[in-house]
Write a structure and sequence with these properties.
This protein is 48% helix and 10% strand. The strands form two sheets. It has a seven-stranded parallel beta sheet. The chain is α/β, with parallel strands linked by helices. α11 packs parallel to α12 and α15 packs parallel to α16. The model has no long low-confidence stretch (mean pLDDT 96). It has one domain: TIM Barrel (Alpha-Beta Barrel), CATH 3.20.20.210.
């Protein structure tokens, strides 16, 4: 069986020929693994994100067990917010931001920061992770996109309606754009620092992009994402992956971003995504729920995704993160099916 490969990941991301498509899974370090649950007994979530040895340990757990082609940094998209002046409390009940950003004064108070200083632990984790992986797989850094981080900052946590965020967007568009600009600059520098610290690949999570109309995304959000991406090294050096769920109506907009890979959820066939954005490599797009069923179904779903993606430029992944009840044997079957020639 073909083993993990850093070069395979990089080649697929740049749409170069590969022996088999590379494979990793979003949230591959997490609660579905008993060894992760053991580590969590010693750390609160945010404490684990800031502990170099602990974060490297849980980042490596799925790689040690399953041998994916990518090892993603264990962290959270909200890590850059506290240095900006936005308090974050995070536990199993989800994120809580006690002082939401809803006024001009509050937006003005947000500050930029040096990620190599105020989030140095993230860079230290990258350097240690790079050493642990030792070139066997690609190491993956990530950040949240400006829109997604803005929703948490404005709502004060998770939301189903995004009422406060959309109120600012439509009633105070200039203020909203100012907030997005600050977030874009901070996240661009934060992600660039991860590359400097050794990340082979970076992924931007615009998790809530699907909540927007095409018109609003084009007006407000794509420019902010482009501003973030402009802070990174020039294209062709470190692959850039863009992920947003529930957003098939926006895929042409994603295809115009200066990214190398667009990650597709299970609601859009990969062949359709390939037709609509033919100049981008694709990632995805197995439904995470399939991993809750029989192992045979997992194998068939991965084979179907590979076939639908067609030759060239495909990274096997889920359409979203692993669900906590997922049996580890389903993940093993997922990786094994991806490795089939």
């Amino acid at each position: 069986m073909t083993g993990p490969s850093r070069q395979r990941f990089l080649d697929a991301a740049f749409a170069r020929p590969v022996d088999v498509p590379p494979v990793w899974l979003m949230r591959q370090a997490g609660r579905y693994l008993p060894e992760y649950r053991e580590v969590r007994k010693r750390f609160a979530f945010l404490d684990l994100c800031a502990n170099v040895d602990g974060a490297v340990e849980v980042s490596m757990q799925p790689f040690d067990r399953f041998g994916m082609d990518g090892v993603i940094l264990f962290s959270d998209i909200l890590i850059p917010l506290p240095p900006m002046g936005i308090e974050v409390k995070l536990d199993e009940g989800g994120p809580k931001l006690p002082d939401p950003v809803r006024t001009a004064e509050r937006v003005l108070s947000l500050r930029s920061f040096d990620p190599s200083v105020e989030t140095r632990f993230v860079m230290d984790i990258h350097r240690a992770l790079k050493k642990a992986v030792a070139g066997r797989a690609a190491t993956i850094g990530f950040c949240g996109a400006p829109w997604t981080l803005a929703t948490y900052a404005i709502e004060g946590g998770s939301s189903k309606s995004f009422v406060n965020t959309k109120t600012m967007m439509h009633r105070e568009p200039a203020l909203f754009e100012q907030l997005l600009g600050k977030l874009a600059d901070v996240c661009g520098h934060y992600l660039a620092a991860q590359i400097e610290a050794g990340a082979d690949v970076v992924q931007i999570f615009d998790s809530w992009a699907g909540e927007l109309s095409y018109e609003d995304y084009e007006r407000f959000i794509r420019p902010a994402n482009e501003r973030l991406l402009a802070k990174l090294p020039k294209r062709g050096e470190v692959p850039r992956i863009f992920f947003a769920s529930g957003s098939s109506h926006l895929i042409e907009s994603f295809g115009r971003l200066p990214v190398d890979v667009v990650s597709v959820d299970w609601k859009l066939p990969l062949s359709e995504a390939r037709r609509r954005i033919p100049m981008r490599a694709l990632q995805g797009n197995v439904d995470p729920g399939i991993l809750l069923g029989p192992v045979g179904g997992v194998t068939e779903a991965v084979r179907a995704a590979k076939l639908d993606a067609g030759p060239g430029g495909h990274i096997v992944n889920l359409g979203h993160g692993i669900l906590p009840p997922t049996p580890p044997e389903s993940v093993a079957a997922f990786v094994a099916a991806a490795r089939e020639a």
